[in-house]
Amino acid sequence: MTKTPEKNKTAIAHGNYIRGSASKVRRVLDQIRGRSYRDALIMLEFMPYRSTEPITKVLRSAVANAEHNLGMDPSSLFICSASANMGPVMKRYRPRAQGRAFAIKKQTCHISISVQSQTNQTNQTNKEEQS
Asked: Rg for the chain (alpha carbons), in Å?
């Protein structure tokens, strides 16, 4: 029997229609991208931004997917990609003087986080260096 090479296992989690602008979520995701799961949780806990709560939920979901579906160890996981895309805009109107109305745009975004085992990354870099 021949063994097939182990593919790059990645667990992904999505958070859709999250209230908050994509640019404000991206500023937090840029700081945790590439870090280990434990470091990212510590950073998210002490950041002063409102968007850290839904990001933490999506990150925990991605790690739960990796643990349950792929059998990975949570202590060896790191964030390999994290992105936030714009979602639909909820339009509301505020009454103003003399019968006018001002539009208020309530932004939403879609958050995607994927985690990967640290050992998979080191195996890839070793193969690239050998080539």
From this structure: 19
